[in-house]
Amino acid sequence: MTFDLIVIGAGPGGYVASIRAAQLGLKVACIEKESLPGGTCLRVGCIPSKALLESSEKYVDLVNGLEEHGIEVGDVRLNLHKMMQRKERIVETLSMGVNGLLRKNKVKYFHGTARLEGPGKVLVTGASGKTAIEANRIILATGSRPTFLPGVEPDGQRIGTSNEALGYEEVPPRLIVIGAGYIGMELGSVWNRLGSEVTVLEYLDRILPGMDFDLSEAALKIFEKQGMKFNLGCRVTGARTEGEEVIVECKGQNPVKADRVLLAVGRKANTEGLNLSGAGIEMNERGQIEVDDHFQTSAENVYAIGDLIRGPMLAHKAEEEGIACVEQFVNGYGHVNYNAIPGIVYTHPEIASVGKTEEQLREERVTYNKGEFPFSANGRARALGSTEGKVKILADRKTDRILGVHIIGPRAGDLIAEAAIAIEFSASAEDLARSIHAHPTLAEAVREAALAVDERSIHS
Ligand code: NAD
Question: Which terminus of the chain has fewer Cβ atoms in its 10 Å neighbourhood, N or C?
């Protein structure tokens, strides 16, 4: 079978690239080894974790969040099994939706494992045997999986990764989370809300590395107030199961005990089994595939996108790279603005960021003005009863161009879209400040922060 393009992997990078390529008139094959398309994000990442974050937030609101609204709640009971079933239904529905989209766009879908077999050649091994297919171009989009720590071997029982923590059958009385990154904070929040005593062990002296430090600090205080415990500057060196407990060792500290351990210390590219070295594809020391500005690997006509290559491991980054990659095949150009990729931690409150952090600007010796606005001064946040956090806008001191926007607060993940557009269109803080924002909305806090860049916020 011959195609114009073979895409290996049907995660957000791969299935979006397949659909866009088909829209552009290419004959496309997309290969996926898991039983359902959608990748980590849809099956065991973004989507199931958001389902659990929403459910657990409703639970915790009922338990202790509604009294100030004048709503008295009786006996609240948790049905974890039902919560998990709901999560699984959402995953299944969305995954079937991806299947439908691939079909609608006439992408030929193969369920099997792909291996590069020479220029333009791929062998798919599936339940019904081996199929050899060919194409002018191949895109690798096989994503990533959790990395392990030496001495902390997941056993799928008491010591596990996000894969297990998305489906615990019972609320673990004591949960140790190793790593205070995206996954640690999101899944740590879920189990903290559902009643676990959560302790986060983090190697650095801060949480959420990569986020604006100021926001990380604010988030740490809020998470502590929510009951999570943090041990920063703690390098985990091992974990072992002893009877019903796990003992976690940290360098220079006393061991800590828990019922379950969630290992969340990053992810690594899925490159095994593809025969990359046989195909002449170079990797870097971090195990990622090296690509040029056009996603081209060191092998001719083989491209790579998403978690396999440099840059943040985010579904929307992979999608955008997939689109840019196939558009350049047909149109001759395709572009991703790496400075305008929002990052969101879906805790409560949410934490969202786009563009440069203050630390990056200082390091790059860029002079900037800063405008901040607290949600406590926003009418809608008051009505919601969610007043923690703030919006911070960093704008170039000379040109007023917006360089970075950082938000911790209610619906920060939705509010950041406006900031991403502002950066994409090279807007100034003045542009944002002059745009009319409906009243009363949370988005007014963004406008007020833009006004504050020029020290003329109205409400603070
Ligand atoms: P991460 O890179 O965000 O955080 C890992 C943390 O583990 C870091 O803070 C690191 O310092 C710490 N760590 C490393 N070694 C340690 C040790 N020995 N002891 C203690 N702490 C140690 O990784 P993650 O949370 O596993 O997430 C993986 C990827 O998945 C991230 O790159 C993220 O982009 C993506 N993700 C995104 C979202 C989202 O967009 N909301 C959600 C989940 C995951």
Answer: N
Question: Are 165 and 193 contained in the same domain?
Answer: yes
Is position 151 within any domain? no
Q: Give per-residue pLDDT as tens, 312-354.
A: 999 999 999 999 999 999 999 999 999 999 999 999 999 999 9
Q: Is the pLDDT assigned to residue 65 strictly greater than 90? A: no
Distance 170 CA to ligand 1 centre (A): 24
Residue that is last in its domain, among 210, 243, 265: 265
Domain co-membership, 83 together with 48: yes
* Predicted confidence (pLDDT) per residue in 439-448, tens digit: 999 999 999 9
**Residues 71-104: tens digit of each pLDDT:** 999 999 999 999 999 999 999 999 999 999 999 9
Residue nearest to atom 32 of ligand 1 (CA): 313
Does the annotation count 439 as an active-site position? yes
Residue 262 Cα distances to 37, 91, 119, angstroms: 25, 22, 41
Q: Which of 348, 437, 439, 459 is catalytic?
A: 439
3-state helix, strand, coil in the chain (%, to 5): 35, 25, 40
Please check whether residues 6 and 131 belong to one and the same domain: yes
370 — alpha (psi -120 to 50), left (phi > 0) or beta?
Answer: beta
DSSP structure string for 24-51: TT--EEEEE-SSSSSHHHHHHSHHHHHH
pLDDT tens per residue across span 95-140: 999 999 999 999 999 999 999 999 999 999 999 899 999 999 999 9
Cα(265) to centroid of ligand 1, in Å? 5
DSSP 260-307: EEEE-S-EEE--TTS-TTTTT--B-TTSPBP--TTSB-SSTTEEE-GG
Q: How far is ligand 1, taken at its centre, from the CA of residue 284, in Å?
A: 20
Selection from 138, 100, 140, 99 nearest residue 119 by Cα: 138
Does one domain contain both 73 and 36? yes
Same structural domain, 130 and 201: no
Are residues 282 and 200 located together in one domain of the fold?
no
Backbone φ, ψ for residue 23 (5° rounding): -60, -35
Q: What are phi and psi of 368, to 5 degrees?
A: -145, 155
